[in-house]
Fold these 3 entries.
Entry 1:
Amino acid sequence: MEYRQLGRAGLRVSAVLLGGWNFGKVTTERESHALLDRAYEAGINVIDTANKYGRGVSETHIGNWLASDPGRRDRMVIATKVFGAMSDWPNDGRLSARHIRQAVEGSLSRLRTDRIDLYQLHHVDRCTPWEEIWQAMDVLVDQGKVLYVGTSNHAGWQLAQGQESALKHGRSVW
């Protein structure tokens, strides 16, 4: 397997990763575990999922797989995403600090781990200011619940806005 550096971070990730979008939606837990086993044997060290995939079922399948052999966790890079609502309640979604902090606790529980290696903003939230998003992420990094922060489904100009906001407020540039 070929490994590459993740952006400017010191983290090395496999050139190929396994996405868990279908875990629980299309594949059973047993089938998901077989796919995870095969990826692991091939040297894939990144599993990507999101809190909303199957309303948490994808993360649960991955967490159960990790727990079945505790030595695996430290060899794997677990990437998950935040944005999607897990219920119909008005604050149970998007990128408010409240939802981010609530969502990470749910993801950690379902993934059966103490940390998320790469926590990604799944979608753009035009209602929440970047300052609030960065503050929430800084708290999670400081607590050791998240190691790296990333984004998914953002245009370049949106990332530039986020970076400008982070720098303006003296925050780390992710």
Entry 2:
Amino acid sequence: MTSPASTEIDPALARTLQRFARLDADTPMPQLSYALRRRRLAELQAGLIRTPLPGIARQNHFVAADGREICVRSYQKHGATAQQTLVWLHGGGWMVGDLDTHDDLCEHLTQFTGHVVLSVHYRRTPENPFPAPLDDVLAVLQWLGSMQGLLPFARDAVLLGGDSAGAHLALAAAVRQLQALAADAGAAGIAALLLLYPPLQPDQEHDSMRLFGTGFGLTPAAMQCYWQELGQPPGLAAQWLQPGRCTAEIARLPPTLVMSASHDILRDEAEAFAHAAQALGAPLQLLRAPAMVHGFARMLAASPAARQQVELACSAWAELMSRQRPQSK
């Protein structure tokens, strides 16, 4: 349990949260629904701190899938030849966030890893309840498998990651692939997972919910709303991710790095999952980012400490994959 003496967060993140709070107060938008207002605020927040990295090429692509179109955005260092593709799923409670809100993070991921990063704009709730977001992720993996030789970043195996709700979807996609390999024939496989502060349990009964429920960004009320809008009942998208319900799949996960945030209401559930997965034998490493709040990975332009933590996660993940490579089949 965290002691009262350890409740200080990175000063740059604290200032950013204060700026976000002022932006929220100064932008009432009463004519908009909760979802639309949160989306607009996320866009404004990203614009408030956006600082593009030089030397990164960005391009939009479109995936046709069963009467819909999924927009994905690729990021690559100018002049660099990337050996792997990292598919990234943005956070935002499955309701908020898009390609633009996560430009900074995806550019930094490209810089830190050297990989092509492919950001996915999956369908969002409440207009598209679960499993629509997951179906879009699986459709993109199918597309990447089918486009080998036609697109330079299309491969038969990719890295997959996400922040917050995106981390939940990344883990869900890995479990789904392990449950239905025959049905996913032709889809790009998942070689490794990078999960930043994932939401995994809708009951919200952990100590971190009480310790960091006020003044640290994400609130229990907001998280409860996100779960409710994701699917009915709220646990629909989580019940089959628990180790007790899919033990075989969790044990067979590819090399996985989970990073929690020290001052995040989701900290304890992410860490509980990581410990359970490790007990099952999964090749999983857990890191806790000190002095960080939920969502710190999308505040990299505002916080050098947050950038350092994401870079640390990328380095540790690469080392984990390197250690596991001789054991891969």
Entry 3:
Amino acid sequence: MKLGESLLYALTRRLYLRNIGQSQEMTQALASADSYADYRLECLNKVLAAARQYNVPWQDKDVLDLGCYNGAISQGYLNSGARSVIGIDIDEPAVVKAQQKYSDPRLQFRVSDTRTFPVDDACVDTIFSYDVFEHVENPSAVLSECHRVLRPGGKLLIGTWGWYHPFAPHLWSTMPVPWAHVLFSEKTLLRTCRRVYHSDWYQPNMHDFDRDGKRIPDKFLDEEIPKDYLNKYLVRDFERVFRESPLRYKIHPQRFSSRWAAWTRPLLAVPLVKEFFTAYIWVVLERPHSATPSRAPKRPELVTH
């Protein structure tokens, strides 16, 4: 076994046994699918808090939930005052489950593809997309569709993160080492995750079981993380896509909330360094009222927190 893999495995084991993945999401995913659903509702509160802070209206508005998954957050938008909600996702089984669980006539769920939304032109006032854009293979095409379905003056709120975020690869409990994907090759990263997955100290969680409740026998067999799962965009890549879209935009990068990271706030304005120290980004995009938006170069309005 190579030295890098041995070192990463030792670090993973230490952090896992001490913290079990270091995140609230992982703690609840380890408990049960029901508690993970509760976590999704906590995510709703984060989205609505950001919507209030950045002036994205949803109450008495027609809302599109882009990447709705099982519909828990979509229902939350309706319960919190939206006039109607359409949830779309490429995960057909998840959409079917949402359709079966929620029956309010003001709430619809539709299977979508990655390039064309099953939604009419200019039919929604607000689009929410939480923890989705890092998975989108072609963000430019998706933003074009968002422009199409938004009414003039309508807004899109995106919550996402860049590839140099410490836990960007979405490997959850098998890789609690921050920035492991930056410090080690993806081959080493995935081989270590596979070794962790089969270790006797590893505790399986809901992500490790198939739809029939059987534990998946093998995971992390690839040599690299596929780009059709994570697009590996840096913050600057997202900025470029937003700049080239027909939508006006403002970026609100978030610093890490832990005390040791309080000093990193000024770093969010430093071009390369910010990639490592931006905990999350909220982006507000707006469809202009003008039928023919200006093609003049746009500069981002950067607000650090």
